Structures are given as structure tokens and as C-alpha cells.
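Q: What would this chain look like folded?
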Amino acid sequence: MNAVEFIKIAVEDLHRGFQSEVAPLTPEQIVYRPNKEANTIAFLLWHFSQSEDNFVHRQVQHQAPLWEQEQWHQRLGLQPGDSGATLNAEQIGAFSPVKEELLAYNQRVLEAARAAISSLNDSDLDRLPNPERPQMPLGRGVANLILGHGFWHLGEIRFLKGLQGMPFGR
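A: My prediction, written as C-alpha cells:
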């Protein structure tokens, strides 16, 4: 197995985890917050999906993300410029998307990531997509911004489910 094949498997596993954890939840469960400063499951899934979308499209494919191309902000009730880094606690608490739309966005991002990753070879992982950030070759970006970031947020979703008395993985 080479590095690109490993990345493909890891990205698939990550998305399978998000989909299986979130799909059975009720609208109330995806917006549960243990306190007014906490993130929700809906926010965490959206934030990760949008981060992956931005990375895949801007850094790998050099184009606008699906968030802009397909107007996902309208479908999820946000503004075009909204990102996980720009919403405050009040906005996170007010974010209450239709779960099926949120899962559909995550699925579209996976499809785009599959295509982008499939276009790479191992030597592409050393490429610098942004010369102003020499510490972040493409492979490191994938490791940090997709895989590490994604599994971290998947863990948070599982924790929030646990706080609500639900086991993860179902």
C-alpha cells in the first residue's frame, strides 16, 4: 500500500464514522449543547465538512469549494462567508440545519475528496500548494487538516452522544 492508498482508506473510514454517528440522531440530539459555549454535533459535522471542502478544492484542485459552487450555505441556513472559525457561540447555538442536508453536504465533500485524492500520486504529497506556507506540503495538509482534524471532531461527536446517554457506533 502506498501513501495515497492509505489516505483514501482513512478518508473513507472517517466519513463512514461521521455518517453512522449522525444519521440516527434526532433534530434535538444534533443541536444538544452541554452548556451555552459548547459546540453541537451539527456544528462539528458542518465545520469539518467545510474545512475538508476548502482544503480539497483550494489546495488540491485550485478551485472554489462546493460550499460556494453549489450554494450549500443556502441549504444549511448560513451565509456564503461563514466558516467554523467565524461563528460565535450564539451563532453556533442558533445553527439548526436539516440533518439530511448536513449529511448530504458531508457526502458531496467525500465524493470530491475521493476524486481529488485519486488524482494524486505519492510524489504529489511533497508539493507545496501554497508557497507562502513551506511548512505545509500537501501530504502534511491532508494529515493535519483532513485526517487529524476530522478524527478529532468525530471523537467530539461521540463524546456529545455519550453525554446524551447514547453509545457511539450506532
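The chain has one domain: 3-163.
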